[in-house]
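Re-run requested by the PI after the first attempt was lost when the workstation crashed. Everything re-entered from the original request form. Ligand of interest: manganese (II) ion.
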Amino acid sequence: MSDKAYQLFEEIQQARGVQLDVVKEKLKQLQIETPSWGYGDSGTRFKVFQKTGVPRNPFEKLEDAAQVHKVTGLCSSVAIHIPWDKVDDYGQLRSHAESLGLKIGAINPNLFQEDDYMLGSVTNADAAIRKKATEHLLECVDVAKETGSRDISLWFADGTNYPGQGHIRKRKQWMLESLQTMYNALTPQMRMLIEYKAFEPAFYHTDIADWGMAFNYALKLGPQAQVLVDTGHHLPGANIEHIVAYLIDEQRLGGFHFNSYKYADDDLIVGAINPYELFLIFYQILDAAGDSDQAIQDTVSNIAYMIDQSHNIEQKIPAMIRSVLNVQTQYAKALLINHAEVAEAAERGDVLAAEDAVRQAFEFDVTPLLRAVREEQGLPADPMKAYLSSDYAQQITARGKGGASW
Ligand code: PSV
Ligand code: MN
């Protein structure tokens, strides 16, 4: 280690009052799941720009995801979306993942792309459609059994565009009925993560519009039901950190979908526009990780960190690398928060000192720290550079254009 780097570490330990080896260990443990749909072609409702080299099937999506993991060491699992990733033999998909050093992560049912679901899936006024939608949820529980996945992430496009279009209270009851049927089918190891979204594709009301509704369903269902916070799904001005702290304290924060609220959905790179928000989310998580209550610590250690982005104009693999590195960087900065210093200042009522103690960690340059951690792990010090200088992008051009959508 160079003198300069060593000096920097001493500075971190002294100035931030944190134990460097603990920080490094935590950085080595961080895992961020990437989504299979982030490797396929995607776009806006205006245009899908087809890319050369996009995977043609779920197996190739896993191969691309393995490249992200290879250079970052951060992404050992891949979420799949059914039926986008439907295969005849999920055992085979699982083995393929394992042969690449990966595992299949969360299973995402898709209840938004069939004509039947135009007026809702599990909340449709037509009982036959509700049944069909619930059967798809059960199918996804079976897929999770075959892939060895712990989590099933639920997002519903259900909602209405106009007053009177649907009966809001009945739809609420139908939602619960369907979730209950699925909950009953979970094995004891499984969890259902309930995602909420304030708007889109329905714009008058969304059946699970916010964290409180998701939380209420989770409470009614039982401890295996948890809330999934997608950072893009809030109304402007929402304090996501507050939601995070609240849900952890209730032991119901199951996971994240990271992306940017600028799109309100899956397509812009997390941390590209508001890295401080990401840092503050980790501040709340790390504060809870230090709680003396074991149940709170367990909640924190079971949080699933997932990227939910399907880049429209960027090159797919580098955009995914950028995304996970942004998460890693803000996590590293948050690890440098001196929680005792913050607490002391808050206790004295010194607002500025408390805020300063939080912000100082954000302003710290963690690049040398991350490079050192990667070197200790046998990873490239600069993952993006390592990928761009590999010949993988060239190799996959043989796939041509017109790969899988999402
Ligand atoms: C919906 O906006 C969402 O965030 C859900 O997580 C979906 O599963 C995902 O995007 C992919 O469309
Ligand atoms: Mn999402």
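Saved to the shared folder this time. DSSP finds 16 helices and ten strands in the chain.
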